[in-house]
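Cont'd.
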Amino acid sequence: MPSSAALLWRQYRFERRLFWRNRSAAFFNFLLPLIFLALFGAIVHGHQNELDVIVPGIAGMSVMSTTFTALAYNLTFLREQGVLKRIRGTPLPSGVYLAGLALNAVTNTAIQIGIVVVAGRLFFNLGWPPQPLALVVFVLVGVAAFALLGAALSHAIPSFDSAPAVINGVFVPVILISGVFFDVKHVPGFLRDIAQALPLEPLINGLTGGMVAHHGDIGHHLTALAVLGVWGLVAVVLAVRGFSWDARRG
Amino acid sequence: MESNQPAIEVRELRKSYGDLEAVRGIEFCVQRGEIYGLLGPNGAGKTSTVEILEGYRQRSSGEVSVLGYDPTERPRELRARVGIVLQSSGIYAHATVAEVLRHFAHFYPHPRDVDEVIELTGLLEKRDVRTRTLSGGQRRRLDLALALVGDPELIFLDEPTTGFDPAARRGAWQTIRSLRDLGKTVLLTTHYLDEAQELADRVAIIKGGRILAEGSPSELGVGAGSRYRVAYANGDGEAKVIETDDPTTLLHALTGEALARGETLRSLSVTRPSLEDVYLELTADA
């Protein structure tokens, strides 16, 4: 029987190849953070303190969109189309298949974070990340938490038609209150409390430490890391419970 | 395992969904190299039964063995020896036919040659096109190709020709017959009589979660419970139909009486019920 490692590598390469082949999806995936950066860079041009907020904010949004949004959408699609069920009937281990999907998503995260970091260096005076450890740790924990939350959300989506509404219904409010486009200090108190209890604000908090000078090393962001970690653990349970390989029936 | 052991054994199988009992004590055996048909109307319990055998659903009670394994545990060794064609299932839309087949072939320890499978399923012209451009019938052939690429001993075909035009059905039947020539065991579900008659070595007629009759298509037509039908028109031209288990005695009596009265029995016929008659009679709503 083929080894799991070999199968995972093959599955991952196959998913990557097909990802690039769907040109419009691939194009928007990488253009979107650049468009946001260009727009907000133009809006707050010359105000370095605001750029210092927006660049890590968009990095956080990239983590969320490449994992949470993409996996909630893909898993719903694959489930409703019967791809999951078909795969389930082959000797490919289910864990290998799901890991392939997750690695495919995480590769997009890495590419987008790379784009944001380079753009921050070239166009927004951020320099190279001053705390690479904080950046890497927060990206890794963030990716794990948001990927699992995306899988969990897909369980709550009854059909592929309703996927965009449900996913955007979560994604848009969360990015608005979590300080992607403005300093979370300017958000009303109760909304700020909500944002800080959700996973995106803590992620952006840590990414700010990683990407912007003088925002503290990882030791200054341990509370944020803890909140994100708890979300990750909750997400494991939510993602595993209620996972369905079969399309929802009428 | 012993090669003379049946490929599939099902005993006292039951499956409930809440209060609804979809499968109510089904029993059957599929021998190796046999094409076995589960024939019944929609909602008869065919798909529930097959999906338990495929490992997709848990049974409520009963015993099930597929190639000597309990399918509920979904052992990888079993999945490597079984091919499944589901009623509907999606596939990588942006990959070509050959790419998808090559990818799936890597899942299996001893796959078949991809080009051979493409040829067997009649997809040669579509080899290098993306799967999303395939027609419904071609998609179905790709489903079959994906089920065959691992060179399975046992193949599950769940309503393989639903939605096909007549020519495409003939083509699919030809392919399924060729599976028998390859020595494969096939469990086929269908609600088409002609499909069961055409393909299956043995058929179980299933309705309301129970098997109502089992046998070869020709046996079922004349088997237990089915009767000869004698039809004629009497002296007044009135049409008569009599069902009997013993047509010889009945005909002797009828013709004797007619001769004694100096009449002829016009339009006399003796027919045995076809599989279709049996099926319609068994599955008719009371």
